[in-house]
Input
Amino acid sequence: GRHKLVEPRTEAPEPVAPRVLSEFCAAFDAGDLSRLTGLLLDSASLEFPGVRIESGVEMLRRSALHNTIFGCEEAGYRPESPPRSEVRNYRGEPLLLWWIGDAVDAVVRVEIMDDRISRLCNYRHSPEATREVCDELGVPFRIHGYRPHSRISA
Output
């Protein structure tokens, strides 16, 4: 009958993440800022939506990437265990999940140009986005609120 005319549905294969992302994860996990920033375009940026944008490899090395991996003394932040990075496909797009201990600490979108990373968008302070992505991926996560902790000087 007619069932023979219907083509069986085949699921699309998982997209293969660009090699630069696995190299980024290896450097991130090793805490190797030189190797990590060597995978970025000189003009690369890292955005925390609604909080701040940092641009340029040297700024990222000294600030956001350093603070993520090693902590930020000024803010009194120290990761409870060494952070690690993992590439996951989310709705056909490779994302980075930055883990601390047994939970995702940040969901990070990545843009690539010429086999190097041109932009990172870190959703650490976007609780709804973090919850949606992590729930859909079935991974544990932490929520940090909308603003980074800051010290108020008297």
